[in-house]
Amino acid sequence: LEEMQMAKVAHAQSPSETGEHASSDSDSEQACSDSGSEQAVSDRDTQEQALRAELKALLVEKPILERSLSDKDTQEQALRAGLDALVVDNASQSQEQSLRDRDAQEQALRVELDSLRSGLEASSAQIVQLNSQSQHMSEVEAKLNAEIASLRTELEMERKTTGDINTREQALRVELEEMQMANIEVEEKLNAEIA
């Protein structure tokens, strides 16, 4: 975009001095309009890059949380198996002291199981939140892409209009030069006849 803008400025400065002051104001206004549109596109691109980086970070974090959730599920299954074994053991034990020991172990396992469940719930909630953020980022990215495409289309239309104006200006300059040459020839003929 910067190269196209520089080429356009160089092209606007290349015609002869005839009518240069008359077209300088319109060229300046057009350059300002192009510059504003290009800055808007650049800002959108910068914002889009930042959102893409944040989305990538979220996508990296998601599988880590999912693996942690799977590991906690495995731990829960192991604890449940141990708890079931203790319950079966308690049924077969006849001594009161042994039963108290088993009860204490069972209670400790139940506390650990409750703690693990709390961790699983927190991880699940975090994954849900991560999915929501990822979806939101995708929606924002799509919206920004649409806005950038619209701005670029508008900029291309402005450039086409500028090109049409420049082409018409060049044609008028050529026509003016031809008229001036014709006037000079007529003036020379008149001077010759008068002489």
TrEMBL record:
The entry's keywords: Coiled coil
Region span, Disordered: 1-48
Residue ranges with Polar residues bias: 29-40
Coiled-coil zones: 141-189
Official protein name in the record: Uncharacterized protein
Organism annotation: Mantoniella antarctica
Classification of source organism: Eukaryota, Viridiplantae, Chlorophyta, Mamiellophyceae, Mamiellales
